[in-house]
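TICKET #2291
ISSUE: user wants both folds in one file
ATTACHMENT 1:
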Amino acid sequence: MSIEVRALDEGEIRAGLAGLPHWREESGWLVRDYRSGGWKATLMLAGVVGHLAEAAWHHPVLELSWDRMRVRLCTHSPPGITERDFALARQIEDVVQWQPAREGSVLEGTPNEDERFCYVRYD
């Protein structure tokens, strides 16, 4: 069952970005830059985004460097930014920004205060 998707107008894009404070619209794309603790962490971030995108059957553009990853989302059919892009952006944020220690979880989370173990530079 397919849900009809349409390109969003400027007001709808602004409203969607209000819920994603680190994302922005740039030349017709939803864009987010992530900072990591280094190359291994950047590759792990790319793997996470790749998994989420493939599961969603929605494929972003990823630009990787040693301690950074840029994610760009845009729908090709219909062309433009759609709710599909926002849905994937929200899922990426939920997974990448997850910090178990802040939730009081039994999982410790990475010790971000120590540069040797820093995985993602959380916002």
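ATTACHMENT 2:
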Amino acid sequence: MKISRLIEQSKVGEKAQKDQFAIDVLTGLCATPKNLAAKYFYDDIGSEIFRNITQHKDYYPTRTEYEILDMVKQELPKIIDEETIDIIELGAGDGHKSQLIIDGFLNANRRVNFYPIDISEKAMLMLRDNIKTHDNLNIHGVVAEYFEGLRYVKERSNNKQLVLFLGSNIGNFDRVQNQGFLRKLWMSLSTSDHVMLGFDLKKDVSVLTAAYNDSSGHTKAFNLNLLTRINRELGGDFDTEKFQHFGVYSPTLGAMESYVLATEEQDVYISALERSFHFDAYEPIHLEYSFKFLKSDIDFLSQKTGFEVVAHFSDPKDYFADSLWKVVKGSDC
């Protein structure tokens, strides 16, 4: 596996990341209501806790999407009829779902160039261990921001592309942000390239609530770990025993919302910021939105951002959908 590093992973880079973390924490804790950016969930400890969440019986998205991709992997080479295909994954993950799609093309005797793009080099090393080698498979990891990575691949290959944005990652953007992201993705691709996007569908609220408040407490640990990370990296003195996790579905937003609540009035000092932050009893810190979709919402998104829906692939319960879109460019897009 070849790895190209477009992000400088040096001590200077680490300091810049820590400085940005501090700025974002300051901005979020000074806001009304207080908030922390969900991107900071995923330190090494948070990533491990999230893997535990995805394997829990209450959390349906990961196993449901895996089942969908396993069902449709043989269909994709028939739809995308190319002798050689570049499969590009945004957000590398552990490779188990991308392996299914790669296998579908390899089983159809196609050549695959797999380009996982992630800001974490550690994610690339995990993929190296999880993706099986094959004579018709080349793996080239790109350590970069998504769109920088896409430009890098486009400059080096004229093959048709299938871009994967799996999981329910698109749901972390709000209704305006997701259109901006998808239009930027459209601009990065060529006519007749394809994207496969994972969408968590709207469903019974009890199913959603259980998934984001799992009975083993993994989601609670995941959210509180963000406070622990602030303590460790920025010199905070959050007492996680004085905060509780709360996940709730907002039907007006069509999103799950995650919070931690201060269970008593308190002040928290963060040495890297040289200041304290006051919390009233049961004052919330907003952590994350996870938007849910109807299939009509997915159709609307594709039309607004320059794509054409090829197919929605869903499970029998309609809990989740992987939607295959084709890039359309020209006067009608």
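RESOLUTION: both attachments delivered.
EXTRA DETAIL ON ATTACHMENT 2: The mean pLDDT is 94.
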